[in-house]
Amino acid sequence: MSRVDDFIDRDKRALGGGGTHGLSHRFREQIHGANGPGTPSWQNHEDQITGQESGLRKCIAEYDRRVAAGTAMPPLRPDARPWSTKPPPAASDWVGPMPPPPPTGGGGS
After folding, report:
1. Average pLDDT of each block of 10 consecutive residues along the chain (109 residues)?
2. Quick one: pLDDT at residue 107?
3. 30 touches 98 (CB < 8 A)
4. What is residue 100's predicted lDDT score, i.e. its pLDDT?
């Protein structure tokens, strides 16, 4: 996984729990988290989102510098720049925790 992919898609739980989640995961957690707007957890997630977006912008700038210098690079994924400037979820975006999925199998009528 590239650094850009990590900034956007990383799921730390799928990788053993170390490190940090990517932006797509953090946005989902912010919108569907148990701790809504005005809580320390909400603010922490917002701070993490803006920090990761800054890191992603630096990574993109380095990519752009290398391309401008003539270094052969794979194409930058099309959603990288939009993710680097996407505003964090607003308080009005919060919907709260998703209900657990219904039980499967077993039981009969």
Report:
1. 87 75 92 93 95 97 96 95 97 86 60
2. 53
3. no
4. 66
Query: How far apart (Å, rounded) are the C-alpha atoms in residues 56 and 54?
Result: 5
Three-class DSSP category at 16: coil
Alpha-carbon distance 53 to 82, whole Å? Answer: 10
Helices (H), 1-109: 3-9, 23-32, 40-68, 80-85
The pTM for the full model equals 0.82
Q: Residue 10 in contact with residue 25, Cβ under 8 Å? A: yes
Q: What is the SS3 assignment for 99?
A: coil
Long-range CB pairs of 90-93 (<8 Å, 24+ gap) are 91/36, 91/37, 91/38, 93/30, 93/31
Through-space distance between the first and last CA atoms of the chain, rounded to whole angstroms: 47
- Contact indicator for 84, 60 with CB cutoff of 8 Å: yes
d(CA 109, CA 99): 24
